[in-house]
Amino acid sequence: MSDMPPKLAEIVDDFASAPRDVVLEMLLEFSDAVPPLPDELKGHEGMEQVPECQTQFFLRAEVRPDDTVQTWFDCPLEAPTTRAFAGILAEGLEGASAGAILAVPDDLYNRMGLATAISPLRIRGGTAILGRLKRQIREQEDAKP
Questions:
Q1: pTM of the full predicted structure?
Q2: CATH architecture of 6-142
């Protein structure tokens, strides 16, 4: 899957090749992989809410001077599937360039085979998270001189 950062491609391949009964277990592991927010973002200041998610979900992407992207996600512990989307993106996009993230396919979660394991509503929420993340990056890229 050369159309995405290597770490994310590995995660996608792991999910796509996993037996269906293991997928939910794998998702739960990623729900624990969401790094804590830094103090300055704890009140969601400067973060964008993703209203398409069934639960409160906030994100922020910042393109650094070296063109890598720093991401922050916040979602309640009581929403493990939604947190798993954040964990997958946090781990899979770590150290990736803005261009590499913008090239991530919008049907990422279908490529992972998640459509057979979780509801379409949750897939839509995950797709919205990726879409808003990419929009934030695109806006920052467009604002560069």
A1: 0.93
A2: Alpha-Beta Complex (3.90)
